[in-house]
Amino acid sequence: MIHSFVFLSKPVISSFPHRPNFNHTQPLLRPINIIKPISSKTSLEFPCNFLTRKTLFVSCPCFTDADTAKLTSDEEVLVGEDSAAFELGKQKISSWIYFTIVLGVVLFLLDFAWIDNSTGFGKPFVDAVSSLSASHEVVMLMLILIFATIHSGLASLRDIGEKLIGERAYRVIFAGLSLPLAVTTVVYFINHRYDGLQLWQLQTAPGLHEVVWISNFISFFFLYPSTFNLLEVAAVDKPKMHIWESGIMRITRHPQMVGQVLWCLAHTIWIGNSVAVAASLGLIGHHLFGVWNGDRRLAMRYGDTFEVVKKRTSIIPFVAILDGRQKLPKDYYKEFYRLPYFSITVLTLGAYFAHPLMQAASFRLHW
Predict the structure, then answer these.
(1) Which ranges does the record mark as transmembrane (predicted)?
(2) Closest CA to 287 of 257, 325, 324, 259
(3) Helix (H) or strand (E) holding 5
(4) Are residues 174 and 210 in the same domain?
(5) Which are the contacts of 250, defined by CB distance < 8 A and separation ≥ 6?
(6) H/E element holding 33?
(7) How far is CA 66 from the centre of its chain?
(8) 185 and 333 fall within a common domain
(9) Residues 110-133: tens digit of each pLDDT
(10) pTM for the model
(11) Which of 78, 106, 124 is the last residue of a domain?
(12) Is residue 112 located within the same domain as residue 188?
């Protein structure tokens, strides 16, 4: 991807106001991320020189409303980041070697300190929560509530925590507390998914398996783009709070919530009992809170820049596209022709065929 940096009549400043109504009698200053490279054949001829940079700042007193409209219609203008972008040529082998080492250490510690019943705290934790109620539905909800409180609580304290101990150290604490609780919740659901009261039985309905399978498959394509940044997730690269705007974000501003709803609905319809309903209610509730909390945190971090993204995206899928606030590029499909999405396809198919292995491994834990 090529970005350009433009100097016109006014100097560049570090912050900018969002101006919904441009007045051609006043100088225009706005940052523009341009997806396709600017060449000498660009439809708008700017009286300036082009240099390779990350952001394009335009400041020109002669820029009219018609020029602005033409630029907006001819070029894909982003104030956020291009999501799921992955350039193989820019990857450092040393970083991925370090990532592999970190992943191995994390998995070893997770197994030793939490999963292994002879050395870890996972089983005592599950037993302690289970002692509070004989209902699997209640225990399921409590496990989700504990995970949600720690996960969302630490996310809310991220700005303060990173200032105190740094981005990498805070990511280690965040992952170190969230990951064991997530594993526990998943294992408990697998082991008790057929417990509780059977509410309906539709597994023999014609075509239902195919509908459930497709829904689950699609749900994984709604992963939040930040999860693709594996080097940041593992704190190999310095973790950042991103504001994404392309790819899946054009469909919905909160794709992880949408994906979780799809996954929950598919599994609840297929299993059809009270434990599945309890798990779905807990997970969907957690992600709906994440919608509010995520927007709040981005607004605090990015201010007017996030308001621009918020106005032209929607929480409910496709709404911003249908009402005209989101303009899809002609080659929109290319924003999904990227390695992260191909990897998701392979991993999703692999997870489907690995279901018997996951179920056997969970059962052996007796959680």
Answers:
(1) 96-115, 138-157, 169-191, 211-236, 339-358
(2) 257
(3) strand 4-6
(4) yes
(5) 313, 320, 321, 326, 328, 332, 335
(6) strand 28-34
(7) 36
(8) yes
(9) 999 999 999 999 999 999 999 999
(10) 0.78
(11) 78
(12) yes
